[in-house]
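Form 12-C: Joint structure prediction
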Amino acid sequence: MAVFAGKITGNASRICKDVINGKSNNGGDAMAYGYNGRILKVNLTEGKIDEERPDERIYRLYMGGSAFSLYYLLKEMPAGVDPLGPENRLVFMSSVISGAPIAGLTRYTVAARSPLTGAFGEAEAGGFWGPELKMAGFDGIVFEGRSPKPVYLWIHDGEAELRDASHLWGKDTGEVQDRIREELGDQRVRVAQCGPAGEKLVRYACILNELKHANGRTGMGAVMGAKNLRAVAVRGTKKLAFADPEKVRQIAKKVVELIPQFPMARNFKKFGTPVFVMPLQESGILPTRNFRAGRFEGARAISGETMTETILEATKGCYSCAIHCKRVVKVEGKYAARPEYGGPEYETLASLGSFCGIDNLEAIAHGNEMCNRWGLDTISTGVCIAFAMECMEKGILSRDDTDGMDLRFGNVDAMLEMIRKIAFREGFGDLLAQGVREAARKIGRGAEAYAMHIKGQELPMHDPRGKKGLVLSYAASPTGADHIEAPHDTAFLSETPMLYECNPAGVVEPIDALDLSPKKIRHFVHTQQIWNFFNSLGICNFAAAPYSALTLPLLTDAVRAITGWNTSLYELMELGERTITMARMFNVREGLSRKDDYLPDRLFEPLEEGTPAEKRITREEFDKGLRLYYEALGWDPENGVPTPGRLSYLGLDWLIL
Amino acid sequence: MAVFAGKITGNASRICKDVINGKSNNGGDAMAYGYNGRILKVNLTEGKIDEERPDERIYRLYMGGSAFSLYYLLKEMPAGVDPLGPENRLVFMSSVISGAPIAGLTRYTVAARSPLTGAFGEAEAGGFWGPELKMAGFDGIVFEGRSPKPVYLWIHDGEAELRDASHLWGKDTGEVQDRIREELGDQRVRVAQCGPAGEKLVRYACILNELKHANGRTGMGAVMGAKNLRAVAVRGTKKLAFADPEKVRQIAKKVVELIPQFPMARNFKKFGTPVFVMPLQESGILPTRNFRAGRFEGARAISGETMTETILEATKGCYSCAIHCKRVVKVEGKYAARPEYGGPEYETLASLGSFCGIDNLEAIAHGNEMCNRWGLDTISTGVCIAFAMECMEKGILSRDDTDGMDLRFGNVDAMLEMIRKIAFREGFGDLLAQGVREAARKIGRGAEAYAMHIKGQELPMHDPRGKKGLVLSYAASPTGADHIEAPHDTAFLSETPMLYECNPAGVVEPIDALDLSPKKIRHFVHTQQIWNFFNSLGICNFAAAPYSALTLPLLTDAVRAITGWNTSLYELMELGERTITMARMFNVREGLSRKDDYLPDRLFEPLEEGTPAEKRITREEFDKGLRLYYEALGWDPENGVPTPGRLSYLGLDWLIL
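Section 2 - Result
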């Protein structure tokens, strides 16, 4: 009798493997296995376009967005390249699930070494551009080199070509979009582009698609500009294939049905992200006058409620999304703002508003249009201007330094004029165009104390004195201060709704927003993993629970139905950790370490109007929290370097130094 | 307008929270939320019985088995207690899913500080006892103290009492079971008990339920004996409540239908675990003569195939399991073996067979019955005897030491006589009853070189020279050498079927059984997490994929349907890591460290018949692999202590030292 049991062969083998791989009907997950995708490789120096079809295992490890971008950046690029040089890679990356007609799966990443921070640079944007790229046949694009003359890339239904953009150089984003659509003879072409600010290498120049959806942060627009790449225009008419189309349809339908039942989703439709102005004000953490205060006397005037009552023209959604959180405003007169440039998000209302002491909503809307017209990140722009305002107030800068401008808090016209000067690097604008870290260094005379940045990136409009998860989120974020690195455990959100979000991951202990103890570490790192896999899959956190209907189980089902992979929430959570860890390794390679994980001194101080003891951040809790955070991720607690063993666990042994 | 968006209140709030918690129909997971359970607390010194109803969050963090046992051991017991003293806790622990009528969810844990190793002691057993405990109304039992006289605990339908066991003391397990059933007037009472070996504190005495299902390892029977606790008898007639009974029924039905399609499941029915004898022999890693050889000339005679053709009387399954891997043998004559004591598993065929150079299947079956009759772990028993045999061969021991016995390899009757002497601690048996580490220490004269143990526990019947995942599994196992710490990446299992098992966790890269590189670390730790959550949920790894139909998605569905929790594979994988880490912390508290994670020197040497270079384990790859393993789990790479941050991540901040 020559039986052996271990060998699985023949037809029975087929059945078993099908069952185990999730192909046959073992839990309602009947679907085909397999994901094929294409990545465009564009060498701008040589004007050459290739394509790559990564192995399915590569797709499964990295999936899209941040992680897949990091895969290319780390694999193809040595450390130490000039962010504005031809060696820097610039990656546009959608994901394996983007383009499915389910609300919230729309976002794509642009990544490179950041000219603002020298660290990992990355920003995501919504809209329709990501799905359009997929329908044009590609998951992502990796640019290298520098074009000898201005070009744009035109991608359409599986084909791609570089086209001359000399005639577009220096033009506003609106004009460029019009011209490209005109010359391609298709008004439905989706254009992602840097603006004149990117051409001029403003260190926080952004990329905009359709004039209003921004890959805002870390200066990705400057990288485009440095490559002489003005735009990427895409048009796709291919129908995307899903492993289980019926299941995809069911999930999409369910999400649409559930959205109106979510109060936050309803509020996003009504007020957009500006809905956050008033509760932050009431909690005393609305960033005001360069983080000196947490309450702004003009808050009501710049709130979502006021916007809805006054300048709001329409609401818009991203691809397949019924939430419609996007604002379209219209202002006529002195502070005209045209609907095609959208309208200010919460971040912009605060950065150009309360942060600069400005309560003129129309002027902020106008400023928002300027930033979108020329391609500036509104957050960094506002923080740079507020910095200059405080320096003037403190006597560190005078009108002699500012081209005669009276840059005091609250000066609307000076703020608007500064936006223009930054975008075109005129006079004093040239200094602020280098980012607040570099500007403060050049000014000297104690200016650094007023430069609100981490790793060189200007702080977003959220004050950790009141939601302490942000302490870690800001300090450790690989891209410098960033507000979508992890969810904000906002005290004013009742009954810690974030818990509902991470309940399926087993995190069920309520946690206080002001906690920074080991209990917070558990909660923070889990939710950070969630938001990081969102960033790698292109998932919008406003469309996800607890704000809206996309719960973690539904998301997992969606990934299964779209890709056909026998995946699980485990795999997605690990993707989140992989994303965090790859970004950390990128920065380790660039020489960043523990010393670069800090908060500006000001955040350790009380607010002008006083900060209750429990809201204050102590240096001791900061140091302790950061160390626990490193350890939680399996990093060396002294220097924050991921260990070879944890890299191995994550399938990243190729990154062991 | 006083709108605030963040606050989720009223009826809409209800809907949202239901959706997010998984109550309403957002992905086919409609079910109620909630798990209630009871733990019996028995103080044997005082004869007092209480019950505890742990908070649901405690249930959700620990779930059952290993992890829940460790929760009680670590919470209630200080470090350094005498394993055989009254302070040692002895925990019997089922799980939140045990008792559901799905094949493979049957196992329960017995845990305490081990008298064999001084480290975490734990062993699982199948059969019907665990589900019976649940149907009697309890999830687990925590014993403390020492009864002034022999007792047994009788649990029946929500009640429990301690009863006199003086008349049972010293009796064979079969007689004890008969007497208890008789005096309780119910033949369906399930009895778990130590045997005379446990009473006599043999350091590797086991616990048996229904005479044949053993909590075999780490001497849990001795802990029972030391507590004067001879048995735990249970009878339950309650119907268990499940959150989604219809879904439970569907899963159960699906598993039953799928089992016959799995070749390994069919083979388990036909040959039981003895099916492994021949393929291990053919791979040259059948443990033979104290790990000197990997091929045994008598392998065929002791194989599953031979057993099925000769002494097999019947096959049996555990509660709700259609696989029927359990053997029932019948031998008459000199080496009589009665069916009520079951039949030898693979481990026993090897430990009393090839490991002692014995090819007499009937004698092994007889030895198996002796071990079950008196309550000895067959693995440790065989390893101790083989150790003595080698010491005799090497001249370290003579007949003067062994009560005149001719303990040479292959001497059937000496082997059987030794079992009796060990069980009753007679003469030379008293020395071997202390375990091979202690026996070798006492013998001296170089005997330690032949003592095959790790942390004091005798090695199971698997040779890492041929499946190198076992290198880490053995060395780092908290209970000492253990074969169910992590799956064996067996070279002879074609197409690395383990991959199919962990595919839903995203581990899809094929891995060679002889690999011990960073790639193996990824695979090993993930599969170790899987087997460790099996140990905490009481899941049988033979019922699970790749051997049989219980895939990870099905298991996750089962936990959801049974408990009503909005859980995921993520939470289960984390439970696995939590289990590993708690056990490590138990050992850290007891003073164990890096030095206790080792392999016996012999395993670094070639086998007698030679070992191909690629199968040999080098000290360098061992040291490197172990360090990577520590790091992978977020432990200090130098000393293997879990870091405060990783403990925090796992919700174990209460264990930070």
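Section 3 - Comments
Chain B has a mean pLDDT of 93. Residues 569-589 of chain B form the longest helix (21 residues).
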